[in-house]
Amino acid sequence: MTDFDAMDVTARMKAPDAVHLLGTDEFGRDVLSRTLHGASTSIGLGIAATAFAFAIGVPLGLLGGYMRGRLDDAIMRTVDILVSIPPVMLGLLILASTSPGVWKAALAVGIIYIPILIRLSRSVALSLAQEEFILAARTRGEGLGWILFREILPNALPPLVVETSLRISFAILLGAVFSFLGLGTQPPSSDWGLMIAEARPYLEQAPWIALAPGVALCVTVISINLVGEGLRQFLDVRSQPGA
Q: pTM here?
């Protein structure tokens, strides 16, 4: 298997064979190599975007749900504004204000998902704020950080873990959309969305160029969703009395 960016003009748009298992693209680059390299870019973007959203959204949601008052109102008004904008449009607005790039696309996807994690973590904090173990922590004189991250967060992790696992798949898909539109990964790097975009003019002559990244994207998104759904069912069973 050759490097993902190695060109061979004598092997342009070759059909799959023993040398190039998934064929070659318009520059003679090995489609399998580019698809595998694109996996690291696309999946890395999804994980980075979700981790960024988790790191920002969860503390803000816990803080607003526990503290309430004006701080909670300010956080939730900002959330309402962000969720009122369609996700793709919000991402386009963010990326239009800067130059294209894979990590800028990851930042845009992360900003899109921050309000979702704020809402989820806030709802958990609201439901736990008056529980006995929280009141006991206050009585002991524990600080705000201790209560949020040592008392509330562990109890909020099950729904947050499930939501985060599902968000990774959507982040991968959204990142591919931005790359397809030319706002994410830039040539000569490889990304599933970028590969599909580059293959558009050659769909009739060499459909395998778009087929490989398209199938990889679909299989990855569906697989992560199935894992997230299985995790949700497992945690639901664990949370039932007598389980």
A: 0.86
pLDDT in tens, 91-130: 999 888 888 888 899 999 999 999 999 999 999 888 888 7
Cα–Cα distance measured from residue 97 to residue 212, given in angstroms and rounded to the nearest whole number: 32
Taking the C-alpha atoms of residue 158 and residue 123, their distance in angstroms, rounded to an integer, is 13
Sign of the torsion formed by the C-alpha atoms of 201, 206, 207 and 208: negative
Side-chain-facing half-sphere of 166: CA atoms under 13 Å: 14
Of 37, 27, 45, give the one whose Cα is nearest residue 3. 37
Residues in the chain: 243
- The secondary structure of residue 210, as a DSSP letter, is H
Q: What are the structural domains, with CATH classification, of the chain?
A: 18-239 (1.10.3720.10)
68: left (phi over 0), alpha (psi -120 to 50) or beta: left
The token pair at 118 is 């704020």
